[in-house]
Design brief:
By secondary structure, the protein is an alpha/beta fold. It folds into three domains: 155 residues, Adenylosuccinate Synthetase, Chain A, domain 1 (3-Layer(aba) Sandwich), CATH 3.40.440.10; 92 residues, Adenylosuccinate Synthetase, subunit A, domain 2, CATH 1.10.300; 158 residues, Adenylosuccinate Synthetase, Chain A, domain 3 (Alpha-Beta Complex). It has twelve helices and 20 strands. The strands form five sheets. A ten-stranded mixed sheet has the order 9-7-5-2-10-1-11-15-19-20, with helices on both faces. The protein is globular and about 65 Å long. The N and C termini lie close together (8 Å). The structure holds guanosine-5'-diphosphate, 6-O-phosphoryl inosine monophosphate and magnesium ion. The site of 6-O-phosphoryl inosine monophosphate has 22 residues, from helix 4. The site of magnesium ion (MG) has 6 residues, from loops.
Length: 427
């Protein structure tokens, strides 16, 4: 059985954690391939709620091996506090594997993230302040620190000094901050080495051997398609590739091994941080979506910006990821609206545009063109099959499917594992 990718089709927070957890019981490996603890994935199991930031959601399934791939950036202090939190709740985390090639979010990367945002002022990206961008920048600049560097003190010291040379100039001369001492950073990083050691592995080899042995590997994306550094709403994006291609580079598994790419799609749209969002609502409907949907950031606690479903974005996600399926989440949140507007195209400078414009300026000018679909008032949270849904809810799903370009193979009707309607099996 080959590999599957599960990723966000919008701007993140689509419900990837729940969807991954749902499949976690039937797969052998769940792999994070990009991002870091900027992610906030909520998993609800019975009456227990878990908020995962760095660990793959598969960690909650006892038979599944969770893997942090080479494409992820790891803040060891966050990793340990997440592991401790789960251990205290009785979750066994001993199977975790971490790539020795994954880059470390150092304390100075967190500092640089925060000061850069402060200096951008009105033009800030609205990052999570977790050091994600500066860590990927160091990786690309070839001055990053990898997990494997913790096991050679001399190399680690040289690398930290090299990374800090330029940064200290910037911190002291531009940002008016105190210089960061390399020795202190090295000491802190070395203090993580022993505890990390049992988890460190050649994850490329492990995953490829697993696939040869017919094991099932599930890649769990962080963030979402529109936050992708290449395909998202640049510069209002994260600094990695959540899109399907990222699963290959971020894990060392080739594209020929991937048979299915599942886009997690919320039945409406949300976004955290700055950047364009054509269907954003500033009225009581937006407030109601936020309240009913519980749209508050898992990582930063910020209110999420809310708006109607945008089919232009969904079509774009289908294209850039080669989606084979959608998992539509949070349909239950829309219960109670008499009419539900859905954005089918944009108007840009007086012209109707069906596809996402590649130009940032055009996207900033995009005004949604809505079609309105009839709503439903019946409680759908107990629905177990598509036929259990009220006719108008069925029609809403069918309309979204038609507009979005890939079959909707599952529908979320509540946060719990079992509050899901499965239409086509993913495995
Ligand atoms: P992720 O980052 O993509 O994993 O998503 P988040 O966990 O940040 O946000 C999704 C939120 O929606 C979480 O609170 C989930 O528990 C919740 N959720 C997921 N699927 C559903 C669903 O189908 N219905 C409802 N009501 N909540 C859901
Ligand atoms: P999950 O995995 C929603 C957003 C931030 C900011 C931009 C850049 O839970 O869907 P960063 O700290 O990554 O440099 O911030 O990306 N962002 C997210 N928004 N969900 C996430 O993760 C996000 N991770 C980052 O708000 O706009
Ligand atoms: Mg989230």
């Amino acid at each position: 059985m080959p590999a599957l990718v599960l990723l966000g089709a919008q701007w993140g927070d689509e419900g990837k954690g729940k969807a991954t957890d749902l499949l976690g019981g039937s797969v052998d490996y769940v792999v994070r391939y990009q991002g870091g603890n900027n992610a906030g994935h909520t998993v609800v199991v019975g009456d227990q709620k878990y908020a995962l930031h760095l660990l793959p959601s598969g960690i909650l399934s006892p038979d599944c091996t969770p893997v942090i791939g080479n494409g992820v950036v790891v803040d060891p202090s966050v990793l340990f506090s997440e592991l401790n939190g789960l251990n205290e709740r009785g979750v066994d985390t001993s199977k975790l594997l971490i790539s020795g090639n994954a880059h470390i979010i150092t304390p100075y990367n967190v500092t640089v993230d925060k000061v850069t945002e402060r200096f951008l002022g009105k033009r800030k990206i609205g990052t999570t302040g977790r050091g994600i961008g500066p860590t990927y920048a160091d990786k690309i600049n070839r001055v990053g620190i990898r997990i494997q560097d913790l096991y050679d003190e001399s190399i680690l010291t040289q690398k930290v000094e090299a990374a800090l040379d330029g940064k200290n100039q910037l911190l002291t001369k531009v940002f008016n901050r105190r210089a960061i001492e390399a020795g202190q950073v090295v000491e802190e990083l070395l203090s993580y080495a022993d505890r990390l050691k049992p988890y460190v592995a050649d994850t490329v080899l492990v995953l490829n051997q697993a696939l040869e042995d017919d094991k099932v590997v599930l890649f769990e994306g962080g963030q979402g398609t529109l936050l992708d550094i290449d395909h998202g709403t640049y510069p209002f994006v994260t600094s990695s590739n959540p899109t399907a291609g990222g699963a290959c580079t971020g894990s060392g598994v080739g594209p020929t091994k991937i048979s299915r790419v599942i886009g997690i799609l919320k039945a409406y749209t949300t976004r955290v941080g700055s950047g364009p969002f054509p269907t954003e609502l500033f009225d009581e409907d937006g407030e109601a979506l936020r309240r009913i949907g519980g749209e508050r950031g898992v990582t930063t606690g910020r209110d999420r910006r809310c708006g109607w479903f945008d089919a232009v974005i969904a079509r774009y996600a289908t294209r850039v990821n080669g989606l084979t399926d959608f998992f539509l989440t949070k349909l239950d949140v829309l219960t109670g609206w008499e009419q539900i507007p859905v954005c089918v195209a944009y108007e840009i400078d007086g012209k109707r545009v069906e596809e996402l414009p590649y130009s940032q300026t055009d996207f900033h000018h995009a005004k949604p063109i809505y079609e309105t679909l009839p709503g439903w008032s019946e409680d759908i949270t107990k629905a177990k099959s598509f036929a259990d849904l009220p006719k108008n809810a069925q029609n809403y799903v069918k309309a979204l499917e038609e507009m979005s370009g890939a079959p909707i193979s599952a529908i979320g009707v509540g946060p719990g594992r079992d509050e899901t309607i499965e239409i086509n099996s993913f495995l």
